[in-house]
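re: that chain from earlier
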Amino acid sequence: MFKKKIGKKTILDFAFLILGATLTTIAYNVFLFPYKTISGFTGLAFIANNVLGINTSLFLAISYALILILSFIILGWDSTKKSIIGSILYPILLELTSYINLDLSEVDSTIMILCGALVGGFGSGLVYKVGYSTGGSDVANQLLSKLIKRPIGTSMLITNGVIIFLGFLAFGLPTVIYSIIVVWIMSYVIDKVMIGISNSKTFRIITENETEVKKFLLSQLSHGVTVIEGRGGYTGNVVKMIMCVIPTREYITVKEEILAIDPRALILVSDVYEVLGNK
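^ sequence. v structure.
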């Protein structure tokens, strides 16, 4: 039974990889490339196609292969194996989806680019959510991070910055502006697909009116609370912190009521994406 579950999960993950990669390549071929909007190694391949006449998918396949070899040498097999399937699949799907021919000439270019960013971000998010990678920029960022000893975020800024600058040299300033917007939107959508949209908030409250605040949360809103004992870092005094998870729709009500009970209360609020176990 356990093996069956593992098998089903593997098949489902692979299906999401194909779906996500397909959506991402459609985003580039249908929505972004016609308006010379670029990001990542796919954008670099588009530049090579326009400037040097090299087939986009062929450029990706060759560059992905070279990056995988470097990844194996520098990062090792464990880090490389997760990118092999995506690195093979993605250039093939990019070539196949390049034959999609839709007449969208009447649609405003800005709307097309925004749609491309949303579809591409959603597709990439699906790929990352199931633990796969489409290779290219993902592996290059890991390599650069290892070589320059800087965080992945810094590596992403450098690689995308270089590619967008090359886009500026090849296509001009509008490409830079649109590409920066697309990179930001895609990153935002990827995060939302991977971790979800927060529908709850965690309140952490330090107040002198502990009993009244607890009574409000327990009796009026019927939410469970946890009281955590701590100590002030400066004063050394023992303090009690009330922790409670509430639906996002009740955020304003809870905040205002707590401040009405104790205007000097210290309130920390953070997003919650998942709650497991007993409430």
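The two ends are 31 Å apart (CA to CA).
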